[in-house]
Write a structure and sequence with these properties.
3-stranded antiparallel β-sheet; alpha+beta; 24% strand
Length: 131
C-alpha cells in the first residue's frame, strides 16, 4: 500500500462520519460474513423533497478493516440528497474515490459498501414515488 493511500484512509478514520445505528430508519441493508469478519450494515432515512423521496440521512456500522470503514463513511455522505434510484446507480469505486487508487487487496471493501447500500435501497427503489 502506498503512503498516500494510507494517509487518506487515516484521515477518513480520524473523523468518520455517519457511523452508528440510525433510529427509525426506513431501510436497512446488511452484507458480509461474521465468520470472516467483514460485515457492513447501512441504515437509510428518507424525506420528501419537491415531490421526490430522497435520502435524508444514512449511517453505517462496520466490522471490517479500516478501508471499509473509510469507504463507508464517504459513501454515506455521497448518497445524501439522492433518490434510491440515483444512489443505486453509484458503484463501489465512486464511494472510495477520495481515498485514491485502492490496492488490489482492498477492492473488496468497496464491494462490501456497495452491497450493503444496494440491499438497503433496492426495496425502496421498487416503491412508487411519493404522491
Amino acid at each position: 500500500m502506498t503512503d498516500d493511500f494510507q494517509q487518506r484512509v487515516a484521515a477518513a478514520l480520524a473523523n468518520p462520519q455517519h457511523m452508528g445505528e440510525l433510529p427509525q430508519a426506513d431501510a436497512v441493508g446488511t452484507v458480509g460474513n461474521a465468520d470472516c469478519g467483514d460485515m457492513l450494515r447501512v441504515w437509510v432515512k428518507f424525506k420528501e423533497e419537491g415531490g421526490r423521496k430522497v435520502i435524508d440521512r444514512a449511517s453505517f456500522q462496520s466490522f471490517g478493516c479500516e478501508t471499509a470503514i473509510a469507504a463507508a463513511s464517504l459513501a454515506m455522505e455521497l448518497i445524501k440528497g439522492k433518490t434510491a434510484e440515483e444512489a443505486l446507480q453509484m458503484r463501489g469505486e465512486e464511494f472510495a474515490k477520495d481515498l485514491g487508487p485502492l490496492p488490489p487487496t482492498k477492492v473488496h471493501c468497496t464491494s462490501l459498501v456497495e452491497g450493503a447500500h444496494r440491499e438497503a435501497l433496492a426495496p425502496a427503489a421498487a416503491q412508487p414515488p411519493v404522491a
